Fold each of these.
Amino acid sequence: MSRITVLGGTGYAGSAIVAEAAARGHEITALSRSVPPEPVDGVHYVQGDVTDEATLASVIEGADVVVGALSPRGALADGFRDVYRSVARIADAAGARLYLVAGFSSLRPAPGAPRFVTDLSHAPAEYHNELSTVSALVADDLPATPETLDWVAVSPAGKFGAHAPGERRGEYRVGDDVALGGPTGGEISGPDYALGLVDLIESADHHRAHLNLAH
Ligand SMILES: NC(=O)c1ccc[n+]([C@@H]2O[C@H](COP(=O)([O-])OP(=O)(O)OC[C@H]3O[C@@H](n4cnc5c(N)ncnc54)[C@H](OP(=O)(O)O)[C@@H]3O)[C@@H](O)[C@H]2O)c1
């Protein structure tokens, strides 16, 4: 059993991860500004803002693992990378491993090829900030953290999210930073992304790595 703190544990990805990890007997703390209408039994929901360092510290200290499931939307559209700089610093000091819910655009179509984010012409303009912000976190910010921080960024397949929740198949594939779904993206349901992420947390055999999950 691990003590796992999920930042954004009530969002699309976060709530699936919370449900999966709690069902396996992990001790879960979920931080968000609002509490969910249907809380998962046994989960400790903390209402607070990730831009407040004291709140962040209070939920990270004592955790074995921190899962970052925030999105750079709304009030976090600008401060997202700063929040994760604080998360990385606090997690490193606390000796907690950090798992980031990343995005498809930070993956590559082939080994060593430019990341999808370098050409966003296929994506509607309203998503460009989100895609490039999350990609910068994966490509620039996490690799620049002290070597003592154990982080894993896990990109979903292209078809993933509240608009396309899908169903639990109980299966997934794990790849490195080359998209398993290829340039067309592939897909992964919320429950199967959570299954894969919690398996990665439990196996703990990737370190300072960028991975992807797809059906
Ligand atoms: N195919 C793809 O590549 C793909 C698709 C979808 C998502 N993603 C990525 O997956 C990640 C998670 O996305 P998502 O769609 O699951 O996000 P989401 O549903 O928008 O959830 C965000 C979570 O963060 C919480 N939150 C927001 N602002 C906060 C604050 N200031 N303080 C504390 N909590 C806060 C929200 O709860 P409150 O609002 O109550 O605070 C919620 O729990 C993002 O990085 C996103 O880019 C990738």
Note: Strands lie at 3-7, 27-32, 44-47, 65-68, 97-101, 151-156, 173-175, 209-214.
Amino acid sequence: MRNPMSTAREPHLPTTAEYDVVVIGAGPTGENVADRVVKAGLSAVVVEGERVGGECSYFACIPSKALLRPAAALAEARAVAGAREAATGSLDVPAVLARRDAFVSDLRDDGQAKWLKSAGIDLVRGWGRLVGERRVEVRADSGTTVLTARHAVVLCTGSSAVLPSVPGLAGIGAWTSREATTAGAAPSRLVVLGGGVVGCEMAAAWSALGSQVTMLVRGKGLLPSWEPFAAARVADGLRGEGIEIRTGVEVERVARENSTGMVTAHLTDGSTLESEEFLVATGRSPRTAGLGLETVGLAPGGRLPVDDSCRVTEVAAGWLYAAGDINQRSPLTHMGKYQARACAAAIAARAAGRRANPTPWAAWAATADHHAVPQVVFTRPEAAVVGLTEEQARRAGLPVRAVEYPIGDVAGASLLVDGYRGHAKLVVDEQRSVVVGCTLVGPGVGELIHAATVAIVGEVPLERLWHAVPAFPAMSEIWLRLLEQYGL
Ligand SMILES: Cc1cc2nc3c(=O)[nH]c(=O)nc-3n(C[C@H](O)[C@H](O)[C@H](O)COP(=O)(O)OP(=O)(O)OC[C@H]3O[C@@H](n4cnc5c(N)ncnc54)[C@H](O)[C@@H]3O)c2cc1C
């Protein structure tokens, strides 16, 4: 896909301006902070150096799911006798890529910039950095401006891909998630370094679009922080689609051959691997470099410790906040937006003279970060998690009991997909009789996980959850089966 540095030029900037709240970064988190403080009656400006909408809209959640969905839809049709007979063709790759391009608005942010304006939020295009207490300098082609915040500066600059120190990596034009989500054609052979969520999803997407994919994973398997059964089923699914997964292996060096244009990776097991493209999906680090943290007494480029209202704890005067990927609490779009809502509520309350202590579950506390972070991996099968795995709960010293159930034995699942294969696990704190974790794997489970999130956040006693009757024949009957397994 072409990669326009979108964005219409802004008119000449004033040299100074004052707002109640200055937000750096117009990703999902920054947009939501600004929206909520404006709705609370404060004025806000957002500073954006690239595209309004951030990584999520153009290079992450949206394009990755747009690439994955057509193959999933086809597989769903083929999994049901009667429909299967009608779904005989193959994916129309150009149409898939065109649909992806439409979802990312051809990498143009005019629509989101228009939304900011309609929400009463000012936008200053350029790169922002702190230049002292409550002051942000923005450098843009059209000039330099200094924005002063009456109440708060909120850093929402997100994260960027980590490139491991593999000799040769800098010289091969390696893909990061940006290239993997925007590529205009499927490479003949693709190596994916890393077995986390991004690695799994991008391997699945490009394999379905025609690439021969090999995943290289340093550890024992994929998705290391997930329940082992979920990670194993995702791996089985990927293998079933023809993806090779090599575990326990690292890359010693890489080079792109001048003659063939192919990348050769030399692996620690002595073998070599050739590919047209080489995707690095080995994690992300917070974008704190160049933010002028040193001008307010913070270590440059480091991690920013925040409290539950996302206020940076090391800035005593309490005017600096950091929300979303930058604080690395729960680096997901929905959690960034949740932090944004909490953070904006805290700023508005404090601006009105209230202390707004971030006590658990207060409107200005992102408490769910500690207990209920839902995540879905959009592979085939899907996997979804919220809260703790059994091992994490035990390590935390909780007196837990786990129950499991094959989702395929639920009528709704077997009606959805012939021969449905899926599995569910519920982790229960026996002392409090509440759910603390849930993991599901199988077609369509991404839409089931919210029920578990509600149960965890609501700390709904199991005896009361028993009265939440799932509709028949829907997949949510899995809830009844899990509670029965528990002994209710
Ligand atoms: C391939 C991939 C797929 C993903 N899929 C999902 C998913 O399905 N669901 C999910 O919940 N999460 C997903 N994520 C994670 C999600 O993208 C991030 O959690 C989310 O984008 C974080 O939002 P943010 O607003 O904190 O940061 P970002 O979206 O990174 O936005 C930060 C913004 O700040 C701007 N900026 C940075 N520095 C400055 C500066 N100094 N001055 C001005 N502007 C600046 C950037 O240009 C950017 O626009 C995915 C990530 C990847 C890589």
Note: The CA atoms of residues 20 and 150 lie 5 Å apart.
Amino acid sequence: MSTLLKVNNLIKHFPVTKGFFQKQVGAVKSVDGISFEIEEGETLGIVGESGCGKSTTGRALLRILEPTEGEVLFDGVDIAKLPKKELRAFRTNMQMIFQDPYASLNPRWTVQQVLEEPLITHGNLTKTEVKQRVTELMELVGLSPQQASRYPHEFSGGQRQRIGIARALALNPKFIVCDEPVSALDVSIQAQVLNLMKDLQQKFSLTYLFISHDLSVVKFISDRVGVMYLGKLVELSPTKSIFAEPLHPYTKALMSAVPIPDPEIKREQIVLSGDVPSALHPPAGCAFHTRCPVAMDICKTLVPKWSEVSGGRKVACHLYEQNHTKEEQGSCH
Ligand SMILES: Nc1ncnc2c1ncn2[C@@H]1O[C@H](COP(=O)(O)OP(=O)(O)OP(=O)(O)O)[C@@H](O)[C@H]1O
Ligand SMILES: [Mg+2]
């Protein structure tokens, strides 16, 4: 397998301005220096509480939001620095599936028009070829091509998400950011849509960044899982090992809230006190130290670095650092 996406020190800060002259007085550090790679055909799940920067990461990767700093290498091309014109053409490789497809589908367009739009804008297909492709896309996502003449509101939530997926697939992308794609759906429908996404991934060797706050969904779909806290990645591990043995205290707390089907297994529930601190003034040192049940003195001042743990696992926590010296200060990206 080869690496499709390599993200180096991605930062997205939203400036906070004040007064008539819009003087910058601070910045919301939504994504604060994260690095990771995604292999071709892989699904990397991203989890974390609300407001920790999951969506901002996905959007900055695709340059729906302009990154403040950092590299996003896609097949070796740095998307973060591509001029606008080249980016437009390059975008066909990368798509996004949203939580609420209804909000992202123009209600005055029929499904036919929704699916035709990217084909007409980016492709050089004849009218007949466009029609054929729409038929193909409808079939791919399990809808009948005859339904293409209907409007989005005439479909159920699950069907609308299928339309969202069909639109994302229209231009044969390699990489799709899926931002909470099943969170708005009934549990019974979630499984169907997730299975469809898995089938399509196999069929077209798609690579997914799959954002969700639902750990069972992430467990089902992901090969590896990244855990975010206040704009930083705190752990990145293969799915099996992160669920079997979470390393970071934050991951442990998140996992402890997931019910285990086996009543024989007892797991201590770790309740995190308080909310996620503001991304405008994140705590110094390890941003999690204010809520961490095992915080040490060092955590209040020194940002933990990535520690590589066996089995392809990475964690940014002082508990796992062998020898930390002042000279080794660095950010955990
Ligand atoms: N356009 C913006 N301007 C200023 N701050 C923003 C903007 N968009 C997001 N933020 C802030 O960035 C932080 C991260 O937001 P983001 O939406 O990425 O979180 P998330 O992990 O996707 O949360 P959720 O699970 O609720 O979707 C939050 O503090 C949010 O308020
Ligand atoms: Mg979000």
Note: Residues 14, 28, 30, 48, 50-56, 213, 279 surround adenosine-5'-triphosphate (ligand 1) (CB under 6 Å).
